[in-house]
Design goal:
single chain, alpha/beta, Isoleucyl-tRNA Synthetase, Domain 1, OB fold (Dihydrolipoamide Acetyltransferase, E2P), six-stranded parallel sheet, five-stranded antiparallel sheet, 22 helices, 16% strand, binds 5'-O-[(L-methionyl)-sulphamoyl]adenosine
Length: 650
Amino acid sequence: MADKKTFYVTTPIYYPSNKLHVGNSYTTVAADAMARFKRLTGYRVWFLTGTDEHGQKIQRQAESAGKKPAVFVDEIVAWIKKLWKELDIQYDDFIRTSEPRHKDKVASIFKRYYEQGDIYKGKYEGLYCTPCEAYWTERQLDDGNCPDCGRKVELIDEEAYFFKMSKYADRLLEHIETHPEFIQPSSRKNEMINNFLKPGLEDLCVSRTSFDWGIPVPFDNKHVIYVWLDALSNYITALDYGEEGGLYEEYWPADVQLIGKDILRFHTIYWPIFLMALGEPLPKTVFGHGWLMLQEGKMSKSKGNAIDPMVLAGRYSSDALRYFLLREIPFGQDGVFSLESFITRINNDLANDLGNLVSRTLTMAERYFDGVLPEPSAQAEATDQELRGIALKTPDAVETAMDQMKISDALAELWLLVRQSNKYIDDNMPWNLAKDPAQNERLGTVIYNLIESIRFVAVMLKPYMPRTPESIWEQLGIKSEQGLQQWESLMKWGQIKPGTVVSRGEDLFPRLNLQAEIRAMRVDKPAEEVDDEPGQEEEQAGLINLEQFQQVDMRVAEIESAEPVPKSDKLLKLEVNIGEDNRRQVVAGLAGYYKPEELIGRQVLFVANLKPVKLRGVLSQGMLLAATDKNGDLALTAIDKKIAPGSRIS
Ligand code: MSP
């Protein structure tokens, strides 16, 4: 085993502040596909994921849930582990930053920095974004708010330890410039250089004193270690960093650290500097993928069923969800998740292309050969050569795409083979061959080639959709034939043995009715309870049914800030809280009716799924409901008594 090449891949460790949504699952599914692909192609792989459990944000969330942080995170971590099981995430280790194996090592790393003079004591007076756990300077703010999440920052003033970032800045810049593979996709590299490195790195505050949910500074336990220093270290503490002969020697530096683009700064500036200070090599590649968005904006857990990965995997299968995530969005770019595009992918790629190929082929194998795989002729016709040619070059094409982290392209390559196989059926029309006994050998060759091609597809599909190949192997009668499931078996055509008994199983992916799915996922009630579509007469009378009404996502919003929009005497810019830490910026024509300060703290009715628009260049993400009378007076809607922001109106 020792001669095998190694591959170490990591995901960010997630904040167990809430259940994860499908956007968070995206990184982990991608990392799992990478890890599985490398295992399949002969690497010794280590795949690490975990949870980032300390910090002010978690402490506050636990407090508002009335729980101790340790109890609060335990519950969410259990849910996250269940989700990864549901999504077939085959990690080698799951690190929790609250574990002693991590905490002890972080404490000694911190002590080492201090002893070697990289950390010194001072006072921090400045700005902090708790949801992002990030320090900002006045200059970096965006309209006074956190430039990453757009939320309010807090002023903090406390004694703190600082890390001398500037000491390493030149070395880091040089590393980035001489290692083009370090920051991927390369388009993100300049952003890091121009926005953070070139303007000069300030020393980073690496401890806090105003809360205690963290790892104490070992020599000054009034302080807890800054959560990002704590969290980033997980990538090496999980490898038993500092212990001889352990995983660290085997796997570090990481081959790929997958993260979302929003946390690139932490991973390509802080993290490499922390490693440099330890004298350790830097990860080979940090890959910042794009965001998965909803049509109506950013994802948040409060947006309901349609983005709960557990619900989606439960209803449509985890393979379908994994396929969608990996295929739909070119890895690295932003993408939109909608139920419509998800169902369309299931119907087109999985039911029509793949599912049909398997069911048509197996039906014919049973009908024409009683399910016993016939011997192919030694003579290959043009269509046979074409199919075989594509099948044999697909593994390389898939591997090349994966090596460039183009996961979606890898699947597109694989689907060329799926489609070619369907075309092969249409070209050869086995049902016509079956009418002529003289064509029996030809018919047998066609069926054999199709079965072999399906086997090729199943082997290559495994990293992306781990369950479907199992079902295909069962149908092809090769469930216990490990050799025919390996990557090496794709080097030569014709490995499956004639005489193998195949049997058609259930359809892999039944076609779905888009409208029924939209109905079922949008409303809380089962689909059967929803009224039928309105009739023509009702429509003409302007009547809508309950389902149509429920398409409007109406909620209680609490106004948290209000200010005039420059150069407009009508508009106010508001920030409203629509629940579960989800805030929206809204531009409303209220200036003639309310003073900004009168609005703060009010709860109003809010439409949360309107397409965002820009008014006077300012983004507005929703609409407050107000009444106007014929004299032109306006009154905001109100709710009868205080209720949790985000509560649905129905
Ligand atoms: N705890 C930190 C990471 C520490 S790593 C040393 C953190 N956690 S997080 O839970 O907020 O986010 C985890 C990951 O989910 C990030 O990579 C983030 O980019 C990703 N995503 C969150 N929402 C997402 C989408 N809507 N789409 C894609 N990825 C998204 O940050």
